[in-house]
Design goal:
Blueprint: H1 10-18, H2 25-32, H3 36-47, E1 54-63, E2 72-80, E3 85-91, H4 99-113, E4 128-134, E5 145-148, E6 163-169, H5 178-187, H6 197-223, H7 225-234, H8 237-241
Parallel strand pairs: 3-4, 4-6
Antiparallel strand pairs: 1-2, 2-3, 5-6
Length: about 240
Amino acid sequence: MPERKPAFTINDVIKEIEEATLMDDYFMRAFFEDNISGTQIVLRIIMDKPDLIVMSVSVQEDFRGFDDSHGVRFDVYAVDSENRQYDIEFQNKPEGASPQRADFNSAMLTVRTLKKSENYSVLSERERVVIFITKTDVLKGGLPIYRVERVIRETGNPFNDGTRIIYVNTSHKDTGTALGKLVHDFRCGNLRKLYYTELAEQADNARKKAEQQLERSYILKKVGENRYRELSKSTCVYNLYIG
């Protein structure tokens, strides 16, 4: 008779969180949620704009252009002080960061940007930027970053449609640059080894938040919603169900 594997416990949950990086979906959400300063650090480095100011940020935001059309969920949606809009996507699988998906997300940002009755010309004042932060070198050029913009082939001049797509390749290792240090921090699970101390502090807070969320999810599966509420009023459910 095969040996029965031990049940997945809260200790396993905690271990998973302690080893998580910002490339892990649940940890990424906990880190960026309402985190304007952290998002600002990331965008300043990727956009190479040290004076960039982030005004708002949200995570896992759903948007559908039309009732019967394909919708999109932006991992991180941010707006800066120049009304530039960002969709930041974290992708561990190449198929999740295909050029077709980047184009679709860019189009959805445009649909979201232009309000009813507005003239198309306002789009030039509201740049839309899709950023894919990828685990592998999706575009296979051996570069740390790829900036995709439309140009007129016959003249080489920019098309100036207000859209931009950026790929950040986190498999490229070069901590001699600001971007290289940021990429290292995206992939590093040991917060004491992060280069950007402010990100490390924020990641520590996010880790605690993610731990609480996963603990609650784990316990809910064990005892159910009603029982969880009863226990929460009288004692610490973590101590009741640890290990």
